[in-house]
Design goal:
alpha+beta; three-stranded antiparallel β-sheet; globular
């Protein structure tokens, strides 16, 4: 059971968080929820795809990490933090932290302030090992500053996502994609239920539509999604390498 509390430098001065990734912490997942605010970094490492929870639902973006249940091909115990990539999706790197909202006393009409909460029941929370959260004089540690920035990526990305995905739909830039291939050992993989950018449609957009996408900053995000599809080949190589080692 989760136990979310407001993080502060009095109650949590001695708490630490293990900044390591492995199956024992629940990081062996085949995909991670991602946000437009991190597409530029993500596209260097992962395939970025869209999914829907149901046909009438809204799109969500995911970074593809593996091809089967409980498979994350970026986990590698040989690496210092257990993750073999230069960038980790914010939804996973944040670990036990999340953004909450708090109103100032007597300021009910104002927008609530974003504050950091921590799940004290999370397996990465410790008093014996891991990254320090607060400095001895009470200030935030560099690790906590980094995590706060990742939470901001999620917060801003959540607000941007609906607008961005709506723009993609209005311009009919989204198409269903089936990912199908054979591994070196002969096993066949077939992934359904994913969506990507329709490159032919993108190439045929009128100049004024491209200009609007450029001005809004969406065009760079669209191309990040397009370029990221090349990472599927690298993911297949990871899978083949893992099987050959086994």
């Amino acid at each position: 059971m989760t136990r979310h509390v407001l993080l502060n430098n009095i109650d949590h001065q001695n708490n630490r968080v293990i900044h390591y990734f492995g199956p024992e912490f629940g990081d062996n997942v085949p995909s991670a929820l991602v946000f437009p605010t991190e597409f530029i970094e993500l596209q260097k490492e992962y395939p970025i795809l869209l999914r829907k929870d149901d046909p009438q639902g809204s799109y969500q973006a995911i970074a593809l990490l593996g091809f089967s249940k409980e498979e994350n091909l970026y986990l590698n115990e040989q690496h210092p933090i257990g993750w073999d990539a230069r960038y980790i999706p914010a939804s996973l790197e944040k670990g036990p932290f999340l953004i909450g909202f708090q109103r100032s006393m007597g300021m009910q009409e104002e927008e609530p302030n974003a504050v950091v909460h921590i799940d004290m029941s999370h397996p990465k929370v410790s008093t014996e090992q891991g990254q320090q959260l607060f400095l001895s004089q009470g200030g935030n540690s560099p690790y906590l500053e980094h995590i706060s920035a990742r939470l901001q990526t999620i917060h801003q990305g959540t607000a941007l996502a609906a607008i961005f995905y709506s723009a993609l739909e209005q311009l009919e830039l989204v198409e269903s994609v089936t990912i199908e291939f054979a591994l070196q050992n002969g096993d066949k993989i077939r992934l359904l239920g994913n969506y990507c950018i329709n490159e032919q449609r993108l190439a045929s957009l009128p100049a004024e539509a491209l200009a609007r996408l450029q001005q809004s900053g969406f065009l760079a995000l669209i191309y990040a999604m397009v370029f990221s599809m090349g990472n599927i080949r690298h993911l297949i190589e990871r899978k083949n390498s893992l099987q050959s080692q086994q």
